């Protein structure tokens, strides 16, 4: 018990580590909530922070650019337009298939994800609309054409290897 108290006091008296700045090569720990409109699409709140190497392409380029220069502890709300996220919605990515291809009527509900094959190649899509005996499927990424809003808190920024002072 006494050791724990000594360790706690020692930690409280230790000098604070200098906060890092988000820059190319830094390892960043951040919590985020991703929203499209007012709808929460993803959050790290329950699973712990995202850890990524800044500048390595592990996160959306538009988000990465908007986090450049952030400091540990900083909170930012950033908007990422479609062209810097999942791209614009491609009109050529809508296909018509026969309604008879669907054996379960529940699969015809708007927005329902479906999988299949076209010319032997697998695809994932969503039901866009039903037009008589045809079903229009949307093969675009579900977030294509959407401006995304990220609420981000940078938890920690670790310096990239070799970026500190020389030994």
What's the layout of helices and strands?
Elements: H1 2-13, E1 27-36, E2 39-43, E3 50-53, H2 61-67, E4 75-80, E5 94-98, E6 113-118, E7 121-131, E8 134-138, E9 148-158
Antiparallel strand pairs: 1-2, 1-3, 1-9, 4-9, 5-8, 6-7, 7-8
What does this structure look like?
With 167 residues, this protein is mostly beta strands. The chain folds into 2 domains: 84 residues, Chitinase A, domain 3 (Roll); 48 residues, Thrombin, subunit H. Helix content is 11%, strand content 38%. A hairpin with a 2-residue loop joins strand 6 and strand 7. The protein starts with a helix and ends in a 9-residue tail after the last strand. The N terminus and C terminus are likely disordered.
Class based on secondary structure composition and strand pairing? mainly beta
Query: Taking all residues together, what is the mean pLDDT?
Result: 85
CATH-derived topology of the largest domain? Chitinase A, domain 3
- Give the DSSP E fraction (strand runs of 2 or more residues): 35-45%
CATH class label of the largest domain: Alpha Beta
The largest sheet is: 5 strands, antiparallel
Radius of gyration: 23 Å
